[in-house]
Amino acid sequence: MAKITYVEFGGKEHVIDVASGLTVMEGARDNGVPGIEADCGGACACSTCHVYVDEAWREKVGSPTPMEEDMLDFGFDVRPNSRLSCQIKVTDALDGLIVRVPEKQF
Length: 106
Ligand code: FES
Fold this sequence. Notes:
Elements: E1 2-7, E2 13-18, H1 24-29, E3 50-53, H2 58-61, H3 66-72, E4 82-84, E5 98-100
Parallel strand pairs: 1-5
Antiparallel strand pairs: 1-2, 3-4, 3-5
This protein binds FE2/S2 (inorganic) cluster (FES).
FE2/S2 (inorganic) cluster (FES) is lined by residues 25, 38-40, 42-49, 71, 84, 86.
């Protein structure tokens, strides 16, 4: 279980307990966080679950795989701390994670 803070583009925060084994995308989708659309359902095939990982968490969360990087190319305003949230598995180690939702999904 990890407490994850999702920050909407406008600054509104959603603090959600997400079970280990789910993805950061599933935690958002199941709790109605706006701005994470996840059109492909987590198959790394749409890029509409794009988020920015808080700088303090980048190392712990890790880097995207080459396949994720290819998909991220379709994201809107992609930055060095961009990740597809369906590709981030939740573990206890991510307790306190902060991710920000981009202005829009492509
Ligand atoms: Fe489609 Fe993440 S939900 S790439």
